[in-house]
Amino acid sequence: MRRSFCLAAVLALLAPEAAQAGDVAGTVYDARGQAAAGVELVLGNARTVSGADGSYRFAEVAAGEHSVTAGSQRVGVTVAETGETRRNIILLSRSVRVAVTGETLTPVQNEAAMADAMRMADAMLAEAAALPPRRWNDIGG
Question: Quick check: pTM over 0.70?
Answer without folding.
Answer: no
